[in-house]
Amino acid sequence: MRKSSKIWLAIAGVLLVALGVVCICRPAATLFTTAWLIGLFTLVAGISKLMFTFRTQAFLPNSGTRALSAILEIFVGIIFLGNNIFVAFSLPVIFAMWVLIESVIIAVNSIDYKRVGFPGWFVILLLGICGIALGVLGLKNPDITAATLSTLIGLGVIAMGAAYLFALFGINKFEKRVDGFRRNIGIDEQ
Is 60 helix (H, G, I), strand (E, B) or coil? Predict the structure, then answer.
């Protein structure tokens, strides 16, 4: 790997770790940035879908519903970008509702696992019940949910940065091994 590529990989890894720490230390800024990114991605997705709809309307059915969906996505993206504060404060509640709904589904699905004879069905049921409790707790205390969400985002970004740095370490180790192999068999580097 080129030395400049290794330098950029190291810089990216260090910056991601630093960004993750900032996300954990500044939960409000993390939520505002996340809300802005959701708005931007929704807007871009809507525009892309609308362009795809216009290009394929001649040979794909239901172009009208796809166009309506795309226009709604564009509208939601613009609202998210224009009302960043509302979206940022809504994210913890939306996240808690998602955890609650998914956990109810998991708990209900555990009964199906029991019916087919899966011996660990009760673990799935217990995890679903724990998720339900956490979802309800998150809805009752959105401030705690916001801090938790920011911490999870921060930890995820730190993990990506650490992965880059470990990858760089692995690449260096691999290159040393290849160089040693080349010397042992008498291949000169070019």
Answer: coil
* Whether the predicted model's global pTM rises above the 0.70 cut: no
Q: Which two tokens stand for residue 23?
A: 């996300």
19-25: long-range pairs with CB below 8 Å, 24+: 19/157, 19/161, 20/154, 20/155, 20/156, 20/157, 20/158, 20/159, 20/160, 20/161, 21/154, 21/158, 22/154, 23/150, 23/151, 23/153, 23/154, 23/157, 24/150, 24/151, 24/154, 24/155, 25/154
Q: Tell me how crowded residue 27 is: count the other CB atoms within 10 A of its CB.
A: 19
100-134 pLDDT, tens digit per residue, is 999 999 999 888 888 888 888 999 999 999 999 99
Nearest 10 degrees: CA dihedral of 20, 30, 150, 124? -100
Closest-CA residue to 69 (of 105, 101, 45): 45
Which tokens go with 21? 């720490």
DSSP 80: H
Domain ranges of the chain: 3-185
Distance CA 92, CA 23 (A): 15
Q: How far apart are CA 185 and CA 4, in angstroms?
A: 28
